[in-house]
Every structure is written in C-alpha cells, then in structure tokens.
Amino acid sequence: GNPLLTDVDALQIRGSNGDAFVNNTSNIDLQGIALGGGVFTLLSGGGVTDSTVQNVVAGSVNITAVSGIGTSASPIKTVATNLSAAITGIGNIYASNTGAINLDAITAPNGDIDIVSTGALVANGPVNSGNSGSITLATSGGGLTTGGAISTKGRGNVGFGAAGGPELHSHIKSGSGALFLPVGPGITGDAQCVFKPPGGDVT
Description:
The chain is an all-beta fold and 203 residues long. It is 0% helix and 48% strand.
C-alpha cells in the first residue's frame, strides 16, 4: 500500500495489531512502536534514532534511512521476528533485539553493522557493509546461523558472537579485514561456508 507521508521529529504508535508504513522526510526518533505481530516499515530521509527505553514491537521491522539507523550508545531496540535494514547514504546500523531474530537484507554501503539479540540469530542475508565498515552479529542466549552471504570491503572486519556457537553455512568475505570467532562452544559449518579474506586473518 501507500505510505503515510510525514515530516515529524518523533514517532510513537500505541496499541495496534496491524501494519504501519511511514515515509518521513527527515530525521526521526522512535519513541515506542507497538504493532503486535504486524509489519512496521519506515522510510527516513535522514537518520533513525531511538532515544527512549521503549521498544519497536512488530512481527517484521523494515527500516530504510539515508544517514544511520540507531547509534552505538542507543541502538534501535526491537522485539521482532524479522528485521531488514538499509542505509542509502553514509551511516551505520545498530540494533538490539529481545528474543530470537531472523535477519533479512541488511546493507550499509558506507558504515558499520552491529546487531545483537538475546535469542537465536539467523542471518538469512545478505548482510553487506562497505567502505571499510565492519559487521558484528552476536547473540547472548542462543545460536547464530548464517544462511546468506556476509561481506565487507576494505579493512572491514566480520565478527560473530554466540552463546550456543555459530553455524556458518554461507560465503563470508572481507577485503583486508579479519574474521573474529567466539571462544567456547564449537563452530560448525558445511560446504557452503567459504571465508575469503584476501589480506585478512581468522581470530
């Protein structure tokens, strides 16, 4: 459907179980989105921040922004089953999910990607960063599985952290960066897992 066109500094949606599609012209701060199992889609002509303790609660969260999604100090806080995110300009993606999460396409052509979850994390991907941006995917309470390509360019590193040990089933590529793997539970993979660090290291 067509989006709701807005030019606001902050957005809050309370007590809904439906979908929401919002296209905002500039920077926007998320101050609590409650859609139950619905789909939340946000397009931002600037950056997207999350300055409160409120979560973005939805079945699927899809965010596209020009200049950043979340910050290292205050990531976008989600309670979602599926997440996709894209930067169209210069900026980073920072997200923190409560529970298990499936990552669809995550793209930051000129920045870092840092996504953590309290439950299992499945990266269906692709997950791509560019211009020496690094990728960090981690879970504190479950396994981490890659099914889609994970790639960085330049000096960008790729790091995985998982309480249950990562299962790598996809191509993982870095320019001259390194691959960081967790200490602890075993690391598993299959013939689909290929790490290509032309000038990098495995740590």
